[in-house]
Amino acid sequence: MRKFIVIALLCLSTQLHSQTYEIGLFGGGANNIGDVGRTNFILPSGLAFGGIFKWNKSKRYAWRASVIYGKFTADDAKSDISSRQQRGYVMDNSVFETSLGLEFNFVEYNLHKLGPAFTPYLYTGLTYFRYGFNYFDAGQLQDIDQKDGAFAIPMTVGAKARINQFLILGAEIGARYTFTDNLDASNPVGSNFEPFRFGNIFSDDWYVFSGITLTYTFGRKPCSDCFE
């Protein structure tokens, strides 16, 4: 019994020290999908940047947290919908998000062994973001210098590869389904703003971040493969 306890404690100790962490940067572009401007799923109209942290719990998944800021512009004149072209609205906004969730690797991704490490991945979780509360009046965007907050569901697909012992390079496209319909200033909330609503008020907005990540790996690496 004593021998079993010793072995169990040794295994637990190995697991506790066998995690690999990643910390780094995200950089790329942002665009929105709503009732103003283009409807392209991936077409950045502004810059996005932020920080990212990952805790690789196994070869197959990692806990992930990120903070990202992005700006975007929606211009009816660039839409392929004729009614929007005739309307001619132009809208600018920005989002600042924090996100926490799970990243799932399609193939085994082991950073504790020398050699290549590559995998496509999916990420989802829960996002909270702040954005500008705007509305249109007589065709002009009204910015009242007010921020609103909402939750979103991130749906991200990407791929990552080790470029040396400590650096991981990745590329990803992440759509956020938001629980607001006013990212594009089309559906301001409040009885005073009812005359300024337009578009499909029963469909919430999306925004998309697409870009690259560069992370640095750290944490104690055991002599043997910690994930076995």
Commentary on this structure:
With 228 residues, this protein is mostly beta strands. It has helices at 2-16, 82-87, and strands spanning 20-33, 46-56, 61-75, 90-105, 118-137, 140-162, 167-178, 206-218. It has an 8-stranded antiparallel beta barrel with strand order 1-2-3-4-5-6-7-8. Residues 3-18 and 222-228 have low confidence and may be disordered.
Put the structure in a nutshell.
The protein has two helices and eight strands, in the order αβββαβββββ. It is mainly β. The longest helix has 15 residues, at 2-16.
Search tags:
single chain; disordered C terminus; 9% helix; 228 residues; eight-stranded antiparallel β-barrel; disordered N terminus; mainly beta
Query: DSSP helix count?
Result: 2
- Quaternary status: single chain
Shape: elongated
| Structural class assignment | mainly beta
Strand content: over 45%
Q: How confident overall, as mean pLDDT?
A: 89
N→C terminal distance:
24 Å
Number of strands: 8
SSE ordering: HEEEHEEEEE
Measured as a percent range, the helix fraction is under 10%
Outline the biggest β-sheet. Answer: 8 strands, antiparallel, barrel
